[in-house]
Fold these 2 entries.
Entry 1:
Amino acid sequence: MAQPTPQTMEPHRAQWKTQWGFLLAAVGSAIGLGSIWRFAYVCYENGGGAYLIPYFVALVTAGVPLMILEYGIGHQMRGSAPMSFAKLSPHWEWLGWWTVTFVMFGIVLYYAVVIAWCVCYLWFSLSLAWGADPNAFFFQQFLGVTAGPQVIGDIRSPILLALVIVWAANWLIVFFGVEHGIEKANKIFMPLLMILILVLVGWTLTLPGSMDGMLRYLKPDFSRLTDPKVWVDAYSQIFFTLSLGFGIMVAYASYLPKKADLHRDAWVTSLVDTAVSLVAGLAVFGTLGYMAAQTGKPFEQVVQHGIGLAFVAYPQAISLLPHLQQAFGVVFFLTLTVAGIASSISILEAFCAAVMDKFHYPRKTVVTVLSVVGFLGGIVFATGGGLSWLDIVDHFLSHYGLFLACILQCVLVGWVYGAHRLREHVNAVSATPVGKWLLDVPIRYLIPAVLAYLLISDVIKDIREPYGGYPWMALLLIGRDWLVVTLLAALIIAMRPWRKPLK
Ligand code: PFF
């Protein structure tokens, strides 16, 4: 009798209705807040158009190989990250759990709060509620920022309310499953997102001074390429923006049919995310160029990054517009909200898939419990001290956590399981074969080396001076312990037996 293969063991696994549906969902996860407000600034700061060289080098040598790895193991093992890792080697199940746990009970908790800010600002746009001083409005009136992480302050009720909306949306989409929830939502979200971004760029182009901003964004300064920081920034951007090391792409690929062009899909996902980041950057820098022209300030002074860009600089620019200010604000914050939700549902699904694989609980129960816990866990970031908590947790999780998880994933697949075995599977289903140089070499040597470098330089920097100037105690108790607690939880879950034996 034929041996049951992993494929025949779970005949009822959900599946994408179409290949397109899968691609849109993967792209939806990749394009997020990170792509829209981070890419442009990092590009500008690191040599403009010249930064595209290290960016593409990082994409080809780390992004695409890791994406092929995640698609490959998810597809071959037909499981979420914990199940796929356990099938690769029973001793490594914990790594799958740790990844999905610190992302679900860490990164997404504060990511959802930032989406909630966008929802609030969508509303504020209607009345230009930030008034003449968007900086004071954001930090004092809206966030009610306290003296530091040790002073929690009060819960900000508008943020809390918006957080309910964000989690309700996450819940509703994932509740209906892979085909009827996630695939359907992304089939609406992704075209909508592209339209919104194109509207923003087109609109921005009509504003005086915008061209100057766009040119500054892309003007190449090749001399910057000799600075190692530029390369470090390119590599660290690639992992986050492509949602690698989150356990997301593993789960999404596990819902693909047997015939799936994994090699092509990895390229398509990475290149579409890059194209969208680049184009969104035009809108961002165009608006900054307009603001510089209107205020007469030097360009360098109006440029801001991250939350300062979205919640201070943009509102300022919106107020300066000659007409249709409200509509411009709505388009911008809707873009961020849609991009954010398409990303947050992907990790909700990644964790949900992991629990369903292991314990066979019904999807609807798992999603409901996770959404409620996700909301409750996010409340701490919706307080006056929330911004510093967010900053600390983000630093530890999206640097130490993700870097370490990606290194270990490469060790597991590259060395323990064997990169060539994964490559054989990918090549058996892809139209064009993947060579050693695109998979084995990066996974076994290059990616672990680059990530180890990033990790060690972070450790050295953090030891020299405490991150963000926060008290050591706060950094250790909030940041480090967040990682430790999620690791312990992962170890405990990994020790529980599978409802159905794996092999
Ligand atoms: N690729 C996403 C971004 O660039 O924003 C990263 C992400 C964050 C994915 C949070 C999923 C998630 F839940």
Entry 2:
Amino acid sequence: MSVLVTGGAGYIGSHMVLALMDRGEEVVVLDNLSTGHKWAVPQSANLVVGEAGDEKLVGQLIKHYKIDAIAHFAGSIVVPDSVTDPLGYYHNNTVTSRALMAAAIAGGVQNFIFSSTAAVYGAAKSNPIGEDADLAPISPYGSSKMMTEIMLQDAAAAHDFRYTALRYFNVAGADPKGRSGQSTPRATHLIKMAAQTALGDRPRLDIFGTDYDTPDGTCVRDYIHVTDLAAAHLQALDRLRGGGDSVVLNCGYGRGFSVRDVIAAVEKAAQTKINVREAPRRAGDPPALVAGVEAIFKTLNWSPAHDDLDEIAASALAWECHLRSLDHAA
Ligand code: UDP
């Protein structure tokens, strides 16, 4: 029995691989290394470099490694890129997921965990936002994930196949043991950008919009520590293996922090002021996005251990320091 983790060399996938291996599971990572890193995969995991949408390859892996569950992280995640290259995003996210699901069903894999996103909601009408809210993505990225959710629902109705789709809110932070973290050079996420600015790798941090209808005028998000997110995946896996039915769950903590709150937390961790510039709003940013978390707490045996913005900021900063030391050594 082993778990296939697609995208296991990437940010969130690598934390899932660590969580699985920490509890002694056998893991097969399938990653094309387009944005992931070989070094992010522990030596003791089986790393296969290839496409998650390669049905034949996945079929072989299922047989060879006796895979009983798939956690599907592989995909493209840069929202503005999805606007300029929608068909690329529908290919990497939707078409690939279809092929992976087909291989799973043909190979008798009944348990499937899918990395979905709060972007399926688009601009939330009210917060916290529950799973039953209207799905109205405002980017091809969000649509590509929503379409995969639809395929999962239909496939689960037709086949001996159950899934958990986890809708991630703002994932941040790094492995507390320093083994992995957000390593994509092009990442534009707030906490990573703030950490890089605090370390002097960027001259300044732009605050995108200070005139929102929020407590301090900046956008509010529900930041979840990547290690807690990986733990939610483990609980989802256990539930599916125990025969649990298909379900869609938000992944967040159910509380929001503003851009200014985040900057203050990173400043505290770095013990330095961050040079910020108040900039215009970024297109497509909803003012506030906070997860409704009743369902995840009711459904999974999940107890977050890192619900602390200071800890999230400190771990992200520590990881950024680690990446810098690798760069400087190279
Ligand atoms: N943000 C910002 N400056 C940055 C990056 C992000 O002000 O350099 C803001 C962004 O407008 C949003 C919040 O921080 O309101 C979180 O953005 P991020 O890109 O981290 O995640 P998103 O919520 O877009 O998925």
